[in-house]
Amino acid sequence: MAATTKANSRKATVAGAIGNFIEWFDYSIYGFMAVTISTVFFPGDDPTAALLATFGVFALPVITRPLGGVVFARFGDRIGRKKTLALVLILMSASTGAIGLIPSYATIGVTAPILLILARIVQGFSAGGEYAGGAALIAESVPAKRRGLMVSLMPSSTGLGLLAGSLFSFVLAGALTADQLQSWGWRVGFLVAIPLGLVGLYIRLRLEETSAFQELAESDELASSPVKETLRTQLGNVGKVAGIALGQTVCYYVVLVYTPTFLRTELGYSPSDSLIATSLAIAVYVVTIPVAGHLSDRIGRKPLLFAGSVAMLVLIFPTFLIMEGASLPLIATLQVLAGGLALGCYTGPLVCTWVELFPTRVRYTGVSLGFNLSVIASVSSPFVLTWLISTTGSDLMPAWYVAIAVAISLLTLFVVPETAPAKGGHDHITPAADDEEATTPGRAGS
């Protein structure tokens, strides 16, 4: 029994993380290839206008992602985590692969950007159900004493997908000429989503449903209307999730997704140099997250959340002030400190805090609503910042944008309770059996 529990915990962690990896690999490809994509789908005499159009399409999840979050959250709390996450992955992989197959504007005219918009709508819609579902799946499948570490692998897989996209873009930029990159090279990253999605789907379909959800289903205690129940009984916790998520999501998009474009278009660095600096920061981010998640199992979630948010506030202005005219090693160091260490410290315990705030019957819905609210401000950040910089002429706009978001998260932390079981936090999640024990899962929170 213990071996089975341990094996299922590992499978659940991989199943939860793999979809997240695929999502962010493809999101990052779009972000890192934004300048190239702008010339393929939005040609014109004004490169800023083309880039704004590209980032405008990138920001479509502002509308579609929250909607997808509501739809899939209802499925996740009604029919189960496993089936919902399988459907999410099918839609995500298909829509992402479709982007790589769309002909250019030069080939089919205005139909090209229209098809790109449609693919991004479906992609954003499916992504709305991925993060909350994967986090709930892992949290309900692992031992309570290691939950911070194991759930932290969700955001770590986000960084890993971003790192893979960054390195992939770096290799393409170095191996191909500008003409090759524009004619076909940019498509490769999107087409890779199809085989990756098939692997992820196979893993998810072989997974068992979580015992917490199964017990609610067997006792006929599933929420009949998860969204209504969440808004009626958990609205405060939804707001807390949105508040503490805002700083993380905005800093993530600005420092780790948008900065390569900023370095290239505003400061004149080559595509390869800008991707090198960002890739180093992402690598540190990926490693820092599970370290912080593990520490949160011992000392609590909130100390690390406070430390990370304060560090982000302290570092963000020096990062963008010093970038202009700085050497590449110095730029990389600044990104590592702000986007790697500080953001990683904050992110490590963050997602586990979200899932521990909600009872099982509305966990998927509660996390999805709160997280996707924060995405509204973060996904649109490349578009907003490109417009703000072109309008104001100030290269400090990214720093101000991040600082305001992080300040909101820091203030929200004061009303968020400590959720770590080791520190006396109220545990809504049925603890899975410890590795060395063979126990029958207890009653799920309701």
Automatic annotation (TrEMBL):
Pfam families: MFS_1. One of its GO terms (cellular component) is plasma membrane. Residues 12-420 form the Major facilitator superfamily (MFS) profile domain. SUPFAM superfamilies: MFS general substrate transporter. It is found in: Cell membrane. The keyword Transmembrane helix applies. Its main location: membrane. It is a multi-pass membrane protein. Belongs to the major facilitator superfamily. Metabolite:H+ Symporter (MHS) family (TC 2.A.1.6) family. PANTHER family: ALPHA-KETOGLUTARATE PERMEASE. This is Putative proline/betaine transporter. It comes from Prauserella marina.
